[in-house]
Thiol:disulfide interchange protein DsbD
Amino acid sequence: MSGGDKAGDLTGKPVSAVLADRGIAQQLDLKMEPLAPATQSSIALWQVALMALAGGFILNLMPCVLPVLGMKLGSILQVEQRDRKSVRVQFLASSAGIISSFLALALLMTVLRYSNQTLGWGIQFQNPWFIGFMVIVTALFTANLLGLFEINLPSAMTTRLATQKRGGLKGNFAEGAFATLLATPCSAPFLGTAVAFALAAPLPVLWGLFLMLGIGMSLPWLMIATWPGLALRLPRPGRWMLRLRVALGLLMLAASLWLLSLMLNHISLQSVLIVAAVFLLALVVGSLRRYGKRNTAIAVCVSLLVAGLVMLAAALSYTNGAKPLQDAVKWQPLTEQAIAQAVADNKVVFVDVTADWCVTCKANKFNVLLREDVQKALTADNVVALRGDWSRPSKPINDFLQKRGSVAVPFNQIYGPGLPSGEILSPLLTRDAVLQGLQDARGDK
């Protein structure tokens, strides 16, 4: 650009710059690339609202929440006098509990924003006390679903709750709030994008999207409230109810063990294994007393068989020629200086911000980043792979994400001669998107 040119939009135009320092000068020939679009402008608000609705709905299918809905239906079946009105009112109260708890989360995010605290979906999993609390809650829930213990209230309190409609509604409201609490360890498709958008948006949008999340999660409950005959058509309690409770208990057991594995970021592996062994031993002993040796042995064998088949299928899928067993990429610590240095050296930079508690991050890793062709592209001589770990609180990682308009993981970005400003990838990676991004960053046509 000559000195007589007027300053204006330089996008796509060549620019020459001279850097001088203590008698040393270097001329750089650059091409101005358009700025990376902001997260909020890349997706329409109505699309994010639909994502929030879908993400909240899918939470009901997660192992953490499904047992709550199953127990809710079980409580309806165990009532001798079942009528449409009572079913409708109970499920409406539970739906109100779900929606109210999501609005409470929105209030918490608002308070954190005004107090300049770290914002992000899932940051509660950086706190070992929260993880420990959820492990205890899900473990007790597992034992209850497996029939190892029952919560028996005093007869006077039971009579009072049965005769006072308001007290019963409070209990149903609490069930909905508890379902939301159990949903926090779970992730679902569309959820991360919607929450990331909400946490970076103005407060009215934040509250609106959290409301949509609550409505989405309460949809199955609202559906039964609208058509209570769906619950009334279920057969009377019998052996099938026992089998259903055991199945739901095993799902909750998986969630509890997953939560326990997150403690590896805070305590030793030996401590985690001891806690897991004590927990599983207590379940086996309780099952022996509850169901006898034969049924317990059958349940343990079936569980081990299913777990073995799942691991075998996973191993076969990872060794089918498309995914190596180990990550061959030499990941380097993520810093702004490392990005700037690599870009100055005309190298391609692949940024990956992840966390152990991020389910979507794991999906990206095993479905995309460990593929043989993607590994080959990331281990090329002109590619620098940088990884940031947000499993624990990290101000540098938090500042890095906020600078780029993101408040959640996974976060992936690609820099290079063809993308000097960087290109942010979708939270749910695909093989084609990663390979195409690396090609664009090299400046290949």
Notes: The chain has two domains: 40-266, 324-442. DSSP finds 17 helices and seven strands in the chain. The first strand starts at residue 14 and ends at 21.
